[in-house]
Design the sequence.
């Protein structure tokens, strides 16, 4: 069987949720979700039970929306025979068909996809190699460590070279070295134009790998987009914090505090740092340039102090998952 | 760039992709055989049970009064097949094999791997049914052949040879094998169907067991609503069902064969229709 390329218009290059709700009986899964996810790495972030897995399962048709519509690259999840030529999903379920080795697990499902034996074998080994599992591939999956099981699931999800990869907590159980390798793999896939949609509760890793984030809490999307843009939208309620290290922080504090968008300028204990909170980061940076030039400050560093996913998460969702 | 081309999976041809479906069906059967039935100790015990009884018959003194009496052995096997192999061994095996085809994977939390593949879910049901048919008929067809052989083993070899190659012996064996196959087809379809409508197939299976068990007491109309009614018409040697049995005309063999195949097509079809909108909810199960 010869692979046939799929032609796509640019309009069909997104994963789209249109007013999607999911109820499990009386229990809310997610409510009125509207998303349009572009290619790249998208981090799906939220506390346990917030609806991340529900969203992912709806993307791939394992569950169906109670209301609304989901489409992946213009394809509906109700049509698995077409959808899964382009989508790979590594679910969170840590379970496998019994009796299979790592290689058999990956190769068997490629055969189920319809790939001929030789091609399936080559693709299986390629995927296994990408996740760094070649040495263990001939061992039974039942004997794998948690990290190895995670990696073989990843291999199975990417073996058929999908355009969209949906990965539910893919970094769980991986040791630091494996995490780094897998994150590199995500980057490589995303750089190749793929959608890599990753759920995780490890915020600094999401921050490290994501091109855009979707923050979800209690079944509601609380923010989405590039993390910088999301942070900018919060400036009014949560002024941006900027850390400045310089030779005369007290004087700098008095100067920057004259600007109306600066709400706080606090000297830190090291005596060389100043933490500024501003409602307009762009204007602050312009003003800082002018002040530095006018007063001859020696600036060592200027860095955002709360513009990462972790800070945004804390502001929007809170440490315990309570929406603030 | 106005359009983007991504190379992914095998092609679907214009029209219905029969070739691809055939490949996928073979791949699922291969995978099911690889993972599913290797350690089914219970099934093996069921398959060996008739052979155990026949071995006992061989070693118990005076169990076989006359080694030249082929018709006695034939009657004995007919009774054993009807009462034990067909109604208990194959019936229970079909519950275990077909009733758990989907349920077992839900309990194992591995069904989603199929649901995440580019296959028609209807094809998955058909492939699983075919696999179960291969396993059940492979196992219990072999049991039928071995039981048949063990029945005649203590008999005079010349008489047995004459019965097999110059008499009706091989036709009998063929009829028993056909009955075993159709029993797997019919009961298999029934229990596959139950697997989609009941969380545990045990209770409905018990009801069917009771229904099939009292089949000989049922009025002719109701007899037609049982698998065993059609299977009985295929048996090469009539077996008495006792003085309480109601009389009815057995259907013609071709009616039996077609009837069971139609029943299987309908029940497998409904099962395939049921799986299409199925959601994965392991937590609830």
Sequence:
């Amino acid at each position: 069987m010869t692979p046939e390329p799929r032609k796509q218009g640019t309009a069909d290059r997104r994963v789209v949720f249109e007013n999607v709700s999911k109820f499990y009986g009386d229990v809310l899964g997610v409510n009125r979700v509207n998303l349009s996810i572009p290619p790249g790495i998208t981090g799906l972030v939220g506390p346990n039970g917030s609806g991340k897995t529900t969203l992912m399962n709806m993307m791939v048709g394992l569950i169906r929306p109670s209301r609304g519509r989901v489409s992946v690259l213009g394809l509906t999840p109700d049509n698995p025979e077409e959808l899964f030529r382009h989508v790979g999903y590594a679910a969170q379920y840590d379970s496998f068909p019994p009796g299979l080795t790592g290689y058999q697990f990956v190769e068997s499902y490629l055969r189920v996809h319809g790939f001929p034996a030789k091609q399936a074998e080559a693709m299986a080994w390629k995927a296994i190699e990408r996740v760094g599992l070649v040495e263990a591939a001939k061992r039974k999956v039942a004997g794998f460590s948690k990290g190895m099981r995670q990696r073989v699931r990843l291999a199975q999800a990417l073996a058929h070279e999908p355009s969209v990869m949906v990965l539910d907590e893919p970094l769980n159980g991986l040791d630091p070295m494996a995490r780094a390798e897998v994150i590199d793999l995500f980057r490589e896939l995303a750089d190749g134009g793929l959608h890599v949609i990753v759920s995780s509760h490890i915020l600094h890793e999401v921050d490290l790998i994501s091109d855009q984030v979707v923050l979800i809490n209690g079944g509601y999307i609380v923010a989405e987009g590039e993390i910088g843009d999301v942070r900018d939208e919060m400036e009014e309620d949560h002024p941006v914090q900027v850390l400045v290290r310089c030779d005369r922080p007290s004087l700098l504090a008095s100067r920057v505090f004259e600007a109306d968008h600066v709400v706080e300028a606090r000297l830190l204990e090291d005596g060389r740092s100043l933490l500024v909170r501003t409602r307009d980061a762009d204007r602050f940076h312009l003003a800082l340039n002018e002040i530095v030039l006018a007063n001859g400050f020696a600036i060592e560093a200027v860095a955002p102090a709360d513009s990462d996913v972790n800070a945004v998460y804390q502001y929007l969702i809170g440490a315990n998952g309570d929406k603030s | 760039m106005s359009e983007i081309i991504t190379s992914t999976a095998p092609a679907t041809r214009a029209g219905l992709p029969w070739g691809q479906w055939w490949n996928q069906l073979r791949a699922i059967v291969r995978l099911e055989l690889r993972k599913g039935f290797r350690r089914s100790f219970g099934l093996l015990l069921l398959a060996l049970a008739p052979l155990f009884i026949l071995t006992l018959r061989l070693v118990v003194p005076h169990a076989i009064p006359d080694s030249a009496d082929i018709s006695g052995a034939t009657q004995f096997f007919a009774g054993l097949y009807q009462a034990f192999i067909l109604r208990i061994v194959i019936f229970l095996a079909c519950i275990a094999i077909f009733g758990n085809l989907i349920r077992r994977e839900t309990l194992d939390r591995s069904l989603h791997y199929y649901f995440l593949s580019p296959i028609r879910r209807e094809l998955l049901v058909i492939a699983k049914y075919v696999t179960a048919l291969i396993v059940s008929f492979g196992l219990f067809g072999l049991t039928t052949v071995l039981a048949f052989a063990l029945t005649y083993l203590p008999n005079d070899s010349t008489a047995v040879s004459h019965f097999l190659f110059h008499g009706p012996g091989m036709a009998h064996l063929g009829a028993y094998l056909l009955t075993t196959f159709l029993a797997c087809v019919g009961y298999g379809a029934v229990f596959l169907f139950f697997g989609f409508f009941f969380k545990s197939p045990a209770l409905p299976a018990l009801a069917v067991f009771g229904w099939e068990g009292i089949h000989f007491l049922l009025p002719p109309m109701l007899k037609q609503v049982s698998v065993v009614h059609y299977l009985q018409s295929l048996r090469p040697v009539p077996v008495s069902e006792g003085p309480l049995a109601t009389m009815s005309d057995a259907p013609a063999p071709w009616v039996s064969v077609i009837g069971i195949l139609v029943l299987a097509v309908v029940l497998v079809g409904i099962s395939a229709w049921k799986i299409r909108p199925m959601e994965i909810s392991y937590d609830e199960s």
